[in-house]
Amino acid sequence: MTIVYNLRASTNVSFRWTRDLSKFQSLYNISASTLRMQARATAASADPPVYEWSSSNTRGGLVSFDAATGLCVFSAPETDMAQMPAHLVYDCRMELPNGAVVPLFAGQITFSQSVTRTSSLSGASGNLALSDTVGVAGEGVGALTPLPLSLSSVLAIAQGAASAAQTAAAKASSAAAGSNGLISALIYG
């Protein structure tokens, strides 16, 4: 069953959307596969698609996958997004080296038709945004977004280190308070 993500994007910024594909890494060689996402006016619309993101593209809609983190980033430049219609449907799939196709997710993309442009801030490749510019209906405000396992582990280690540091600081503070009383007793008798 294909997961549905209904996306919210804007026509006045570069497109950047990150998904965690780490759960697929034990099943497929994602790095050797082609990741492809196409957007069309309707599911039945003929070729070519309105827009395509692909790991085999060298410009336009790009897909990059980091095997170390399991994160996949879909990006496109602001100049391309400025041409988007208000509503599209899309799906994303992984094309394996043996020719097999694995559907990953699908849904709708709603573009807010924004006016103010920031083209001087976004790069031609659309990869300069540091955080996602695309939202998913149901994620974000009030919804928790799960971290990839590798980042969850790092967070747990950092929280443990912070707790240990607080405990050590409390012990040092109490030891300092005790030694101050001893020093006062020795000096003032």
What shape does the CA trace take?
Answer: elongated
**What proportion of the residues is helical, as a percent range?**
25-40%
Main beta sheet: strand number and arrangement?
Answer: 10 strands, mixed
Q: Kindly state the mean pLDDT as a whole number?
A: 82
Q: Give the CATH topology of the largest domain.
A: Immunoglobulin-like
Strand content: 25-35%
- Contiguous uncertain segments of 5+ residues: 120-128
Q: What's the SSE pattern?
A: EEEHEEEEHEEEH
What is the CATH superfamily classification of the largest domain?
Immunoglobulins
Distance between the termini: 80 Å
Domains, number: 2
Total beta-strand segments: 10
Q: Write the CATH architecture name of the largest domain.
A: Sandwich
Radius of gyration: 25 Å
How would the blueprint of this fold be written?
Layout: E1 3-4, E2 7-10, E3 15-20, H1 22-25, E4 34-40, E5 51-54, E6 61-66, E7 71-76, H2 78-81, E8 87-95, E9 101-112, E10 135-136, H3 149-188
Parallel strand pairs: 1-9, 2-9, 5-6
Antiparallel strand pairs: 2-10, 3-7, 4-5, 4-8, 6-7, 8-9
Structural write-up:
The protein has 189 residues and is an alpha/beta fold. It has three helices and ten strands. Strands 1, 2, 3, 4, 5, 6, 7, 8, 9 and 10 form a ten-stranded mixed beta sheet that branches. The model is unreliable at 120-128 (pLDDT under 50).
